[in-house]
């Protein structure tokens, strides 16, 4: 029985990464990311006792008030990534300008991240997360990050919740999940080749319905269709307001997540480089769809978008064929 309770052959994150690549710089990068996720997880868990709730008195790149934990998480990621020696340019939601790594520590990757997404949930202990995307350096300038999601080489998120869970994928690879085992301080491989439920999964729609009056008619119609029931079955509503938690649930259980372009936010709310593209890669490589909905004159795929600025936004409609198909049908009906 001791073999079941204690693992003498732990399938750690490092082991998985080393099995997938011979690129030692990529191994170092994943190692630095994992270190920062452990540090952030510790800060989130100790936020109450360490008095880390509340505002830091600053405003971030998109005009949001920064929380103490936002700033601390950002510092943890920047320090870990700079000192990994394998990054050249970092883009963080919390920094207006890109961070250029000093030459003596520079390497071949560019990383974009939202260090602590879902900040409005921090002070009431609701799940938050980190989201990241990785590109290879080209010319060592910020434009290196203004590339299509199709050029992203690695993307993922870490959820800080009842368990700390890292989900990521390499380009053209499978989606894998790792839980932090606090007894050994390591991420352990717990979910293999994660797949979006083939039949669409649970009937759940997830959106901030408080924006209903701003939505275009097809989005209103689709959400009404979910509520009225498809094939006679009304959908349940679930919306945490932390993208990592809402997407993690959608990936595991199924359903649809919608943050569309609307009259209030013509480009959507979520950031393309460190929210839209990485989540789109995860959902698509797990067999789901990550659509922009109607945006820039057509219905496109989030993973094919190219950012025109590091903090630009994009609309997001993510789910399986069953549910995203409902939204597409509503667009068709609207002409
Ligand atoms: P943040 O990066 O400032 O935390 O904002 C992003 C968050 C996402 O996690 C979440 O999906 C969305 O904003 C919620 O927005 P809203 O409060 O408009 O529903
Ligand atoms: Mg944030």
Can you characterise this structure?
One of its GO terms (cellular component) is cytosol. Belongs to the FBPase class 1 family. The termini are far apart. Helix 3 packs antiparallel against helix 4 and helix 5 packs across helix 8. The model has no long low-confidence stretch (mean pLDDT 94). With 335 residues, the protein is an alpha+beta fold. It contains eight helices and 18 strands. A hairpin with a 3-residue loop joins strand 7 and strand 8. The strands form four sheets. An eight-stranded mixed sheet has the order 4-3-5-6-7-8-9-10, sandwiched between helices. Strands 12-11-13-18-15-16 form a six-stranded mixed sheet, with helices on both faces. It binds 2,5-anhydro-1,6-di-O-phosphono-D-mannitol and magnesium ion. The site of magnesium ion has 5 residues, from strand 5.
Q: What value does the Rg take, in angstroms?
A: 20 Å
Instruction: Write down the secondary-structure element order.
Output: HHHEEHEEEEEEEEEHEHEEHEEEEH
The proportion of residues forming helix, as a percent range, comes to: 25-40%
Q: What's the β-strand tally?
A: 18
Low-confidence stretches: none
> In which order are the strands of the major sheet placed?
4-3-5-6-7-8-9-10
Distance between the termini: 63 Å
Hetero compounds: 2,5-anhydro-1,6-di-O-phosphono-D-mannitol, magnesium ion
């Amino acid at each position: 029985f001791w073999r079941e309770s204690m693992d003498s052959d732990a399938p750690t994150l490092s082991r998985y990464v080393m099995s997938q690549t011979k690129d030692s710089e990529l191994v170092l990068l994943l190692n630095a990311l994992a270190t920062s996720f452990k540090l952030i997880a510790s800060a989130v868990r100790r936020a109450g006792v360490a008095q880390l709730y509340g505002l830091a008195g600053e405003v971030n790149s998109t005009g949001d008030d920064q929380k103490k934990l936002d700033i601390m998480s950002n510092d943890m990621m920047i320090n870990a990534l700079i000192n990994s020696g394998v990054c050249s340019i970092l883009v963080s939601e919390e920094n207006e300008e890109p961070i250029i790594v000093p030459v003596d520590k520079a390497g071949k990757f560019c990383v974009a991240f939202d260090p602590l997404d879902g900040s409005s949930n921090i002070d009431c202990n609701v799940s938050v997360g980190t989201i990241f995307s990785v590109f290879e350096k080209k010319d060592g300038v910020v434009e290196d990050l203004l590339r299509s999601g199709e050029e992203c080489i690695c993307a993922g998120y870490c959820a800080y919740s009842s368990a700390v869970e890292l989900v990521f994928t390499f380009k053209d690879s499978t989606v894998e999940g790792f839980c932090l085992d606090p007894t050994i301080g390591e991420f352990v491989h717990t979910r293999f080749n994660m797949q979006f439920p083939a039949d669409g999964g649970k009937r759940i729609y997830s959106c901030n319905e408080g924006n209903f009056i701003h939505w275009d008619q097809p989005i209103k119609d689709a959400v009404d269709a979910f509520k009225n029931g498809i094939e006679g079955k009304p959908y349940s509503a679930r919306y945490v307001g932390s993208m990592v938690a809402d997407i993690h649930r959608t990936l595991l259980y199924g359903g649809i997540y919608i943050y569309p372009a609307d009259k209030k936010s013509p480009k959507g709310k979520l950031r393309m480089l460190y929210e839209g593209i990485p989540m789109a890669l995860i959902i698509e490589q797990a067999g789901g769809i990550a659509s922009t909905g109607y945006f820039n004159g057509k219905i496109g795929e989030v993973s094919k978008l190219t950012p025109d600025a590091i903090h630009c936004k994009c609309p997001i409609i993510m789910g399986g064929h069953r549910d995203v198909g409902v939204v597409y049908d509503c667009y068709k009906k609207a002409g």
